[in-house]
Amino acid sequence: MARKPRTQTKLFVLDTNVFLHDPTCLFRFQEHDLYVPMATLEELDHNKKGVTEVARNGRQASRFLEEIVSTQELDIEQGIPLGPHSHKAATGRLYLQTTSIQNDIAAVLPASKVDNQLLGVVSYLQHKFPSRPVILVSKDINMRIKARALGFLAEDYFNDKVLEDTDLLYSGVRELPENFWDSHGKGMESWQQDGRVRYRLSGPLCASMLVNEFVYQEGAKPFYAMVSEAVGKSSVLTTIKDYSHSKNSVWGVTARNREQNFALNVLMDPDIDFVTLLGQAGTGKTLLTLAAGLAQTLEQKLYSEIIFTRVTVPVGEDIGFLPGTEEEKMTPWMGALEDNLDVLNKSDDAAGEWGRAATQDLIRSRIKVKSLNFMRGRTFLNKFLVIDEAQNLTPKQMKTLITRAGPGTKVVCLGNIAQIDTPYLTEGSSGLTYVVDRFKGWPHSGHVMLARGERSRLADRAAEIL
């Protein structure tokens, strides 16, 4: 470890929770060096048992470490270059603790606790390399507070964040400026195709437009369209279907605002395989999705059935084990589904009580409620798959679910990133934020951020002031 770096690279000391959070963290520090204390390896060993996401990550991290260490023929104290193992993404070195470390931390904190042993390692390295920044990386807030109280540098692990600021998250909707047609109308072409008007435009705004992004202009003559092509500084805008009109109602549901109209356009488009709808409580995400699902399953026969699943993270205390089959166990979590089905069933007044009961039975036979725990290894053919409360999924879990889609399947993810109940996820690292960011601009995906609550004046006021 006496090797002096040519440039002033940092030395990062890794806490166990970083490995348990992201097993690939070894390859995420670019040119900087990493130091793994013995206490971290001990804790990794304690966390390897079980089938949870944490245990899986612990085992994967250990495999990566073993792969790196087993290739080292020279003295480990000199550090192991990470470049060959990371396709040159990380060019620093990995150091493992090879000797017992005596430090002055024991006088302040009891050495029996693993956290304090880690702080002792940071203290030792700081004294050994006084001119080099030694930084503790931990996901544990209290650990970082302790480190700073003792005068050490400490940082959170940010590499898992898709976006630093969720205000920058793609909304799927863009308001056109007042002078848009003046600045983009030169040489404009327009034609009719499939009952829709299309406009081919070129101009400065076109370069930043994404395929399937909605654009609008309010005023005396409102204009609502979707970007159907975007190449360089040229775009094709296609007018959308007006689902706010009762003649275009979907299973008795009409759009109550602009964003709901946009949402129904992507939900009802058979060319769009993947839809994400974000919005606070009461914006109509589940209702619109179920209405579109029922219309396309029972009326248009595009899909064979609707599969509804959601992340089972309780808001309060857990209610323990539940009896019954998979569907029965999921019933307490499916209040949202029941509430929305009640609304959809009431929309058909002409059918009478018997007719409604028959419709209800038909709908029940076509909606399957599944648990996320049994999704691995499945393939869904011609299904309308709805993932509710998707903000509580990690990016890895999201990938597992979306890759279940077989031919003819549409996947719809619903969520509100302001309501994350999973302890280790934030708005920036949620799987929902991840897929919205990665799928934007793909011709077969659509995204709409629903803005206005349509539940009741009480719910809107509560969302605003509480």
Model description:
- The mean pLDDT is 84.
- Strands 3-4-2-1-5-6 form a six-stranded mixed sheet. Strands 7-10-11-12-9-8 form a six-stranded mixed sheet, with no helix packed on it.
- It has three domains: 11-155, 5'-nuclease (Rossmann fold); 166-239, no CATH class; 249-465, 3-Layer(aba) Sandwich (Rossmann fold).
- Helix 8 packs across helix 10 (335-346) and helix 12 (395-402) crosses helix 13 (431-439).
- The N and C termini lie far apart (54 Å).
- It is built from 14 helices and 18 strands.
- With 466 residues, it is α/β, with parallel strands linked by helices.
- Helices cover 31% and strands 19% of the residues.
- The chain has helices at residues 16-21, 38-46, 53-70, 114-128, 141-149, 180-184, 258-267, 285-299, 326-330, 335-346, 352-366, 395-402, 431-439, 457-465; strands spanning 11-14, 33-36, 80-81, 93-96, 134-137, 153-155, 173-175, 189-193, 196-202, 214-217, 223-231, 234-239, 274-279, 305-310, 367-370, 383-388, 410-415, 445-450.
- It is globular.
Number of strands: 18
Report mean pLDDT, rounded to a whole number: 84
Distance between the termini: 54 Å
Strand order, main sheet: write it out.
Answer: 3-4-2-1-5-6
The CATH class of the largest domain is identified as Alpha Beta
Please give a quick description of this structure.
The chain has 466 residues and is α/β, with parallel strands linked by helices. The chain contains 14 helices and 18 strands. It folds into 3 domains: 145 residues, Rossmann fold (3-Layer(aba) Sandwich); 74 residues, no CATH class; 217 residues, Rossmann fold, CATH 3.40.50.
